[in-house]
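Homework help board

Subject: predicted structure for assignment chain

Our instructor gave us this sequence and asked us to write out the predicted structure in token form, then describe one feature. I got the tokens but I'm not sure how to describe them. Can anyone check?
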Amino acid sequence: MNILLIAIGSIALSVMAQFSLKAGMSSAAVRAALSTDDYAQSAIAISTNKFVLLGFLLYGVGAVVWLAVLSSWEVSKAYPLVGLGFALSLIIGVFLGEQVSVPRVFGALLICTGVFVVSRS
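My token output:
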């Protein structure tokens, strides 16, 4: 399989992990636990939340997939591709109703331009 597709898959898994973690940390149970001074309750609520657990699982799978990328490419070529996660998270954020400003879109486009330049080297 094309190593670029594997890299993009790993990055997509990381982006999905971020949104899953956000969903977990925004859940009513976690927010309620965090509003108390009971740190043990907060830790239990966070560590047993299905979205938080899914987020960690997605990060783990993404890291394992990333190992395939690192086995084929130099880090200086592979790592800048992680910047594509900014653009992907911005796109998904728009579909989920997040506020996305023009400067944020411009910044993501600059990052993608840099990723393109690095990938051509």
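Reply (TA_rk): Your tokens look well-formed. For the description, you could write something like this. The two ends are 21 Å apart (CA to CA). That's the kind of observation they're looking for.
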